[in-house]
Design brief:
alpha+beta, elongated, PKS_Beta-ketoAc_synthase_dom, PKS_NRPS_Biosynth_Enz, 6 helices, 2 domains, three-stranded antiparallel sheet, two-stranded antiparallel ribbon, 24% helix
Length: 250
């Protein structure tokens, strides 16, 4: 596994002042892709596709191809060379700006839909004096995203669902079961039992009325929810306010 990113430590005061006056530095500390204030900073985790599939990782994209070239005769060190860029890649459907620099000469944007059967994106950048780099990122192979890989997990995931009342909890259980049933196995959202369990526990507010269960796959979770719709739910709200307890481990 590899972390791909870039860090540049500038210790010289004159170099720092020159780059700051030229507008090369990030003034906000935030990255805003596809925004007028974008800076173009990021960090990604890289791993061989075969190993990522074996480990059951949530694969966000696959690096399909990388290419670089150099224009050489750019008008300035901060301006790209259109000729060299078109030699590097072409036929791009849409362009989302990442850098603050306004590029007056862009590649012609194809207005037609190319009908590509899978999702793919082109990430490009350029450096000083005409250097260009481009990367094609695609979705993972759909055969590797089937729910059948979930049977490899030897353990069950805990699932937590809650509501403000018994009625709202029953409604949440019904809606989640219906959503899991109608979502195809090769859905682009890469639905998995692990992702669902984490989302329900870490990204939802927990209320007093709760449903707790375990599941090894999406199908088993949907079945458990469907059979629990008519079950009896209980409110776990304490009858008396409990005092705070501080525990200090050895």
């Amino acid at each position: 596994m590899t972390l791909a990113g870039g860090v540049n430590i500038i210790t010289g005061i004159h170099n720092f002042l020159d780059l700051g006056k030229a507008g090369f530095f990030n003034l906000t500390g935030q990255c805003k892709p596809f925004d007028e204030a974008a800076d173009g900073v990021g960090l990604v985790v890289l791993k061989p596709l075969r190993q990522a599939v074996t480990d059951g990782d949530n694969i966000l994209g696959v690096v399909a191809s990388i290419a670089t070239n150099n224009g050489g005769l750019s008008p300035s060190i901060t301006t790209l060379c259109p000729r060299a860029q078109t030699e590097l890649f072409r036929n791009v459907d849409a362009i989302g700006r990442i850098l603050k620099l306004v590029i007056p000469s862009r590649l012609p944007v194809c207005a037609r839909y190319l009908g590509i059967p899978f999702r793919a994106a082109l990430v490009s950048s350029y450096g000083a004096a005409g250097s260009n780099a481009a990367l094609i990122c695609t979705e993972p192979p759909r055969r590797d995203r089937n729910r059948a890989v979930e049977s490899d997990f030897p353990f069950a995931f805990p699932v937590f669902i809650s509501g403000t009342s018994i009625e709202s909890l029953r409604e949440n259980v019904t809606k989640l079961a219906a959503y899991l049933r109608k979502t195809p196995p090769d859905d682009h959202n890469q639905l998995s039992i692990g992702n669902v369990a984490v989302a329900l526990h870490d990204h939802r507010r927990h209320h007093n009325v709760r449903w707790v269960g375990t599941a090894r796959s999406i199908d088993s979770l949907a079945y458990s929810l469907e059979t629990s719709v008519d079950a009896e739910f209980f409110d776990v709200k304490p009858r008396h306010k409990r005092p705070m307890v501080l525990v200090f481990s050895g």
